[in-house]
Amino acid sequence: MRFSRWLTLGLVALAACKNGEAKSGGGMGAGGEMPPSVVEVAVARTDTVIDAIEATGQVEAIQAIELRPDIEGRVLEIPASEGTEVAAGAALVRIDDQELKAQVAKAEADRDLARQALARTRELLAQKASSTSDLEKAEATARGSQAELDLLTLRLGRTTVRAPFAGVVGQRYISLGDYVTTSTRLVSLQTVNPQRVAFRVASLTGQEFEGVVDFVDPVVQLPGRTILIKAVVPNPRRQLSAGMFAEARLATDVRPRAVIVPEDALLPLQGAFFVWVSKDNKATRRQVGIGVRTPGFVEVKSGVEAGEQVVVGGQERLFEGAVLAPTVVERAPVTKVENE
Predict the structure, then answer these.
(1) What is the rounded CA–CA span in Å between residue 248 and residue 263?
(2) 104 partner at 20 to 30 Å CA-CA among 11, 16, 136, 330?
């Protein structure tokens, strides 16, 4: 009787163990496999990426001068007012030229007399009534009188101060009737199109300007270790003015077919970055090299090819070779990625 009791108890315990094993295997799929992990994936795409560096600067006119007269005298007329856009050669200031006109008239008379004297000397020399030295003296006198006339005519023309290039008349420093010398400032003049400019201007919110770099100083300026870079940008609407503070963004490299993935696909780990890739509905972890970032997206330089699916949701449950049940999610298309 005692033997039968122990035998019965042993069978009950064995049955209990088998029931426990059955319950512990309830989370497995058919054949003891784990069920697929439900994840969200996004397709790696190609896009244009612009590598850029940020700097500060200011807008400057390519040409800007303060005009001064070549002739002394009183200001007779100021044809161009401040803020007027003028063409090259336009009259800006006229100085009284009456005295010079009289001098030119006298010089013309002296030249005519010298020419007549030269003609008579040649006639006399032909008649052997004059010497070769007399002819040489008459020729020198004629050349001198012509040179004097040319000089005075040139000075007369310079009584009108003209714009050396097309631009906008700036501040005027003189008034009608002022007596000016060759050191007197008359007006300022500066170009408005094109301008040397950075691409964002603090005073013009929400606008961007693009130009072409035409000069990079090879010398590093100390102590700030800065490099001077100049670019030319069109300014047809005259929005840019000299002296404006600018935030420069200089493109150093353009990659038209860079691989772009959503930023939430990245997993940082010990100074490196990884992504989970869904390949044949199985998870594989890859280390990636990253480049330019923009809100929501990042450039992947290595580790992922365009068209591959990267996991953007549910990464925390994954392991190498895990079976996936991926759902493709769409992200807003990126038209241009820049290093902001």
Answers:
(1) 26
(2) 136
Predicted confidence band at 195 (pLDDT cuts at 50, 70, 90)? Answer: low
DSSP of 177-236: T-EE-TT---EEEE--SSEE--SEETTSTT-----EEEEE-SSPBTTTTB--EEEEE--T
Supply the pLDDT for residue 199. Answer: 66
Fold exhibited by the domain 37-51+254-338 = 2.40.420
Whether the pLDDT of residue 218 is over 90: the answer is no
**Cβ neighbours, 10 Å, residue 60:** 18
pTM here is 0.48
Write down the pLDDT at residue 90.
Answer: 94
Q: Which of 315, 314, 269, 273 is nearest to 293 (CA)?
A: 273
Average pLDDT of the chain, as a whole number: 82
Q: In CATH, what class is 69-96+159-190? A: mainly beta
Q: H-type helices in the chain, by residue range?
A: 2-24, 98-126, 132-157
Q: Which class would CATH give 97-158?
A: mainly alpha
- Inter-helix orientation angle 132-157/98-126, to 10°: 160
Angle at 175 between CA 170 and CA 176, to 5 degrees: 130
Tens digit of each residue's pLDDT (9 = 90 or more) over 199-215: 667 677 777 877 777 66
DSSP state of 315: G
CA distances from 83 to 18, 49, 80, 207, 271 (A): 98, 41, 9, 24, 58
- Domain ranges within the chain, ordered by starting residue: 37-51+254-338, 54-63+193-253, 69-96+159-190, 97-158
In tens, the pLDDT along 44-102 reads: 999 988 877 777 777 777 778 899 999 999 999 999 988 888 999 999 999 999 999 99
Q: How far is CA 82 from the centre of its chain?
A: 29
Cis check for the bond before 194: say yes or no (omega within 30 of 0): yes
